[in-house]
Amino acid sequence: MTTTTRTPEEQARREAQAKSDHRRKVGRTILGRGGAYAVLIGFAAAMLFPFLFMVAAALKTPEDTFRYPPKILPRTAATAEVAGAEVDLYSVDVPDSGTATVYLAEPSVEAGLFVSLDDPEVTISWPLEFATDTGSTTTVDGETVPIYSVQQGFETVDLALTRNTSVGRFVGLDDETIETYAVVRTAERAESIDPQWQNFSDIIELRDFDRSLTNTILVTILVVGGTLFTSIMGGYAFARIRFKGRNALFVTYIGSIMIPFVVLIIPLFRLMVALGWVNTLGSLVWPFVFNAYGTFLMRQFFVSIPKDLEEAAYIDGAKRWKILWSIFVPLSWPAIATLATFMFLYAWNSFIWPLVSINGANSDDFVLTIALQTLGGQAGEGPNLIFAAIVLSVIIPFTVFILAQRYFVENVATSGIK
Known about the structure:
Blueprint: H1 8-58, H2 62-65, E1 75-77, E2 79-82, E3 85-94, E4 98-116, E5 123-127, E6 131-140, E7 143-152, E8 155-172, E9 179-182, E10 191-193, H3 198-205, H4 209-240, H5 246-255, H6 261-275, H7 282-285, H8 292-303, H9 307-315, H10 320-331, H11 333-349, H12 352-357, H13 368-378, H14 383-404, H15 406-409
Antiparallel strand pairs: 1-10, 2-3, 3-4, 4-5, 4-8, 6-7, 7-8, 8-9
């Protein structure tokens, strides 16, 4: 057996190489994960931006909603009380002082529109009392105009007078020694971030939107509860109870999923007319408490539960009803939560069937989707109210989905044996 001995120099070189390889590996890992996170954050921001814009628009005034270029945060024109009167505030450039918050002290002062001698594209409106005729002239756009010596703050420049106009005299809000002049029509208004929370109360008071919200909550609870009950019962029957024609009946029942809903609208509506349920909330509930997809989902989940648990319960004297609700249902919470979430979103967002079954004049039985559709005509000039109504209709299902999302990714072996 031979032993290899390394010199101190070779040992140090190997250690340095190992450290270098480790640093490169760590760097590649950080770079790879950092790039992946950056891409995911970018996609998440792109997906969330419309929702954030909708929430911000719901808190704006109508004027702020129509502004161009648009701004994300809700803003309102700033005002202040000066000498016992409320005045509008402006953000205007003051010579030698920069931008300042000012108010309009005098709306019309005789002024002139001056252009720069070096660049005719640069223009300024300034009072004639601060301009002195130099006696010289120049040509601007083929026209001979006089040259004035114009004083702005501590600076005096020579400018060409193209025409007479008028400006407003602005005075500093906090410091009245600050004074400047600008065209009132084009002066930039001072703004403050001011969310209009009253938009939500306004939209609730508009055409009984609160009644539509209550109807939607009631219909959704009944549809989800009824679907869960019938799906659990039907799923257990198809999974555990043997009877003649079970498989054929199950295939036929599942095959109904392939029938488009638009094909069923007319016969379903005629059935509602025959039962006298048109223009009632019952027409929005009873046709949807029996769901083939829910039965299929629960049946597939029940099939995966070991029969040993059921046989053990039989030996202990338990009946099918107790086995179902004491063993199968507790083990099936992931499937139940998933089905409840799907049915919640379906019932909450349903539009075509409520539009058909609820008469437009019967606003007492409107649900949110119909109320939003009619709201466009009532609040067409106030898109902020429409956005507020959308936020109210979205916030509840959004919250439900966030609370139930873990059931969509849960992957647990529900064997019941620990």
